[in-house]
Amino acid sequence: MDVAELVDRARERQPRAVAKLISLVEDASPKLREIAAALTPYTGHARVIGLTGPPGVGKSTSTSVLVTALRKAGQRVGVLAIDPSSPFSGGALLGDRIRMTEHATDPGVFIRSMATRGHLGGLAWATPQAVRVLDAAGFDVVLIETVGVGQSEVDVVGLADTTVVLLAPGLGDGVQAAKAGVLEIADVFVVNKADRDGADVVARDLKQLIAYGRREVRGESWRQPIVRTVASRGEGAEELVRALDEHREWLETRGELVRRRTRRAASEVEAIAVRRLRAELADLHGGGHLNGLAERVVERALDPYAAADALLAELKPGQ
Amino acid sequence: MDVAELVDRARERQPRAVAKLISLVEDASPKLREIAAALTPYTGHARVIGLTGPPGVGKSTSTSVLVTALRKAGQRVGVLAIDPSSPFSGGALLGDRIRMTEHATDPGVFIRSMATRGHLGGLAWATPQAVRVLDAAGFDVVLIETVGVGQSEVDVVGLADTTVVLLAPGLGDGVQAAKAGVLEIADVFVVNKADRDGADVVARDLKQLIAYGRREVRGESWRQPIVRTVASRGEGAEELVRALDEHREWLETRGELVRRRTRRAASEVEAIAVRRLRAELADLHGGGHLNGLAERVVERALDPYAAADALLAELKPGQ
Prior knowledge:
Two copies of one chain form a homodimer. With 319 residues, chain A is an alpha/beta fold. Chain A has helices at residues 3-11, 15-26, 32-39, 59-72, 91-103, 122-136, 151-157, 174-185, 199-213, 237-253, 256-283, 288-298, 304-315, and strands at residues 47-53, 77-82, 109-114, 141-147, 162-167, 188-191, 216-217, 220-221, 226-228. Helices cover 54% and strands 13% of the residues of chain A. Chains A, B: This is LAO/AO transport system kinase. Chains A, B: Keywords: Chaperone, GTP-binding, Hydrolase, Kinase, Nucleotide-binding, Transferase.
């Protein structure tokens, strides 16, 4: 099937075409350029929401509950579950299976786990392109879900229009350790397992953090709300959807939505450019150039900066 | 203090000079080029050992026990604890404090946690340079320890001379989920908490995995040993040291040590070159070029590949 036909079918909401396009992204298909060009005219509609939190916080359940609530509100939802590429995790796959059973029969939901292990910078490269596929396929909301460990993973989820950070009681010194990192990427906080002991402490600590580190945007601030949920019983989902809607409205009235999307597009364009440059570096003299330089570094005949100079000189011979 | 003096002091094993050099690496000091040139002649001595495993496997304790065993064998040990840059973790810092108390008074041990959050590709860039500092400072062994989640983190630890993967019973479907990923980076397996129920099952499953996925190197294979430890009681440390020594011998007799170090140097040189290219991309027209292209992508006037073309054309105007 050619790209145009595949894109047509994805826009007709055929799940297999959507899945195929995401697979082509993951496999770094040579057709990607053509795919991106074909998709671009149909993008810009979807709200992109990132969800992250420490292991054990109830991310999969929360995602599932949020999907249910968004479906009630008539929204079509695509979910990208970012596998943290751990050789140990397997979590995303398991989570998929659980969530798939609940939403499997619903044509308004598409769930996909992304595994990009072994590609440095692979997440930054593949995720926005997969978002683009779901956006063009007409999903109203794209949820990017990832466990909040790993620098690439957190970076990617922080590029959403709205980023939700989940915490829960009983996960060690989660909030104390959270510090500035969470404040930077969180637009909405969720305290899940809110029926458990310690939930009040988590919420109170969060409030202090927020008061301390309030983000300033053009002189006006978004005060991150704290939503309490018990995802396992579906409690708090409506409040979460409301908080997301309020943030969306704030984004739009402040011009911040365009700014965030520009930042995301910049990250995507940069990742595509860097990937191409890396391929060129690797290809110099059929890969022999980098290897030869590395051998000289191991022999201590060159330091790594001098070797990088030599590599770059070869990449840009005219300069 | 100038770089030459700092390097001299580090080579005289003054911990503050070593710490200062690693801080300069982490902060991407403009002096890095000079530092790398000054360090390079003194490198190549240290054995670089990577340690990883899922959360809860007992990595910090195992590292501490391994440090003790290596010290008994007369080795000076530097430890780089890679913080997985999670805004939630805080684990590395806590771990440091615990380990520091045990080894604080020992001048033959240097422990440092690396946090490089917020820099895409930061780990691949900073870690080999920090290893270089410890190597030049005369440490016989450099241990790189990281939790086995996050693509960048696993990539980095997989670039050691020898990579140890820890597993333990009671961590869910750890081994089943491990699959090929672990086999690719593990040279030595440790089943920690070997006194607990389920340790035999973990070891048996590992044996099957190894039999199934044995790594072939030039027609001869290294069969990954499985060492059982109870790190909390210091049990199995000698066996682990022996397994590490055997792997080291295998590396040397097969010429594999030079191959691995060349691969690591290539990764370092590439990371330095890519970082420089990224800085150049970001600097084009004072950052305005990338931003302007991103705006056009958001407006759907350009697809991201066409935008990347335009960015690269500006980077290499002669071509």
